[in-house]
Amino acid sequence: MKNNFCFLTFLFFSIPAFAQIKKAAVKDLAFMSGTWVQKSEWGDLEEFWSQPKGESMMSSFRCIKEGKALFYEFVVIELEEGLPVMKMRHFNRGSIAWEEKEKPLLFPLVALKGKRAVFEMKDKSVRLSYQLITKNKLSVVLEEKDKNGQPKKDIFNFTRKL
């Protein structure tokens, strides 16, 4: 019985920090602010994050390949019940939305430590991590499942556009 209690205590305290976050402010995400660029197999990527203001941040993203925009993202982070929640929408050329009008993709903040923030959909199907590596380097990691249900990870190493 004592061994079971010790094991359960160990498991309880071993739960990752992102499962225990209770409160955070949008201003804690200021490290994401700026204009970030990267050349990748997807194309030329550009992502802009505003400074936190009014308990919110906003972002625009575009992917350019062979001189044409392939798709865009518009993102806001707003404070809800004491935690920042990322709300994302995708658009094809011509501003054709991927998501339904009333249903942006929602990513509540699940971890925040220093200059690293992790957002995850409630069903845990998609996770986005942002980490400021240096003043001018931002790592963004997209973790999701592919069409066969296998884990897939895309890593974007953005450089601050000066």
Automatic annotation (TrEMBL):
Domain of life: Bacteria
UniProt domain DUF6265: residue ranges: 30-143
Keywords: Signal
Pfam family, one: DUF6265
Signal sequence interval, chain numbering: 1-19
The name this protein goes by in its record: DUF6265 domain-containing protein
Species assigned in the record: Pedobacter zeae
